[in-house]
Design brief:
binds zinc ion, elongated, mainly beta, two-stranded antiparallel sheet
Length: 115
């Protein structure tokens, strides 16, 4: 796989509830909402992406037990934030606004990606 020339993005450019595109792995090309970010691991889970089957024991809540599907973690570098204006996965930059608020911007069209 070809390596990007640019330096890797700093962790933290993707947050919970972001809409991202998967750019590597078996679910490459899929898009979904970020469910959870694990900053220490540099990983995250995306809705309906990288589904893994998990065997569970019967519990009081779930009498049956059995196999459930859940989202497996992806490495943060395997997803890209989607810019709603570009309608594609883009690289993320940062900008400090006049009120000192730090926001994420699309490096392609400079659209502010934080609502
Ligand atoms: Zn854009």
């Amino acid at each position: 796989m070809a390596r990007a020339k640019e330096a890797p993005q700093a962790p933290g450019h993707i947050k919970k509830d972001d809409f991202v595109k998967v750019i590597a792995g078996k679910d490459r090309g899929k898009q979904g909402k970020v469910l959870r970010v694990f900053p220490q691991e540099g990983r995250l889970t995306v809705e309906r992406v990288n589904m893994i089957k998990r065997h569970t024991r019967p519990t009081r809540q779930m009498q049956q037990g059995g196999i459930i599907e859940r989202e497996g973690k992806l490495h943060i570098s395997n997803v890209m934030l989607i810019c709603s204006k570009c309608e594609r996965g883009v690289r993320v930059g940062h900008r400090v606004l006049e009120d000192k608020k730090k926001v994420r911007i699309c490096r392609r069209c400079s659209e502010i990606l934080d609502k």
